[in-house]
Amino acid sequence: MPKTSIHKCNASGFIITATFIFSFGYAILRYNIMGNVPWKDLSFFILNKSIALNAFILLSFNFSLRPLVNLGLKVPEVLINSRREVGMASVLLIFVHVLMSFLIFNPANYGKFFETDGTITLYAGLSMLGGILSFVAILAYRLNFISQMKDNKSVMKIITSRGLLILTLLLGMLHVFFMGFKGWMDPSGWHGGLPPISLLAFVLFLFSSLINIIDRKRHTS
Q: Higher-confidence residue: 136 or 61?
């Protein structure tokens, strides 16, 4: 029996590797080369930014493929077969990003998110709230791949619903919007003319949200 009949051919390894190389390269180019972030911060501060971008790209890819197919776009089967591994990788990357962010979230690294008395700003609080809720929603969505959960139909109906998926995307957009929307309004301040990573992430999730909403309305109309 051919191997492909047991294990469906997919491109998850290539997708995950390629997006990581792009994300890390973009972060280095924007912040170290074109910006003023010192190279000593490459191994943590810059890496954390690249991991965040990598996770957003993979999540958008994972959440967008099926709606695109439903809307009539011809997507290669090898990409469809990659969704599970890509989704798992995105969750792991988000978990790493959350841990790294908590370790370096201080006035020295993120001064704009802190008041003079050391408390976080309203925008920082909204961003953190959106990020945490989005992470929880993503974990809930991934539970549908745990065999023990599949027997609970009421739980499965919720965590596999299109509504939860769209909510996850909107919460992710909330996180990156309040993280950097002020910088989006001033392209002259973009390092080397390169858009901020938060803006790239917002656009990716906006696209994914829109096609999921369109697909949902198409099936409910």
A: 61
Long-range contact set of residues 4-8: C-beta below 8 Å, sequence gap at least 24: 8/81
Q: How confident is the model at residue 1 (pLDDT cuts 50, 70, 90)?
A: very low
Maximum distance among all alpha carbons in the chain? Answer: 68
pLDDT exceeding 90 applies to what percent of the chain?
Answer: 47
Q: How far apart are CA 120 and CA 109, in angstroms?
A: 13
Please state the pTM of the whole predicted model: 0.85
Task: Compute the distance between CA of residue 108 and CA of residue 59 in angstroms, rounded to an integer.
Answer: 30
Are the C-beta atoms of 201 and 150 separated by less than 8 Å?
no
**Residue 114 in tokens:** 């802190």
Strand partners, 120: 114
Mean pLDDT over 10-27 rounds to 95
Task: Count the alpha carbons within 13 Å of 17 in the hemisphere toward its beta carbon.
Answer: 4
**If you count DSSP H runs as helices and E runs as strands, how many of each does the chain have, helices first?**
9, 0
Q: Which residues, other chains included, contact 12 with Cβ-Cβ below 8 Å and sequence gap of 6+?
A: 82, 84, 85, 86, 89
Is the pLDDT score of 156 beyond 70?
no
Q: Tell me the residue length of the chain.
A: 221
Torsion angle, CA of 49/53/58/59, rounded to 10 degrees?
A: 100
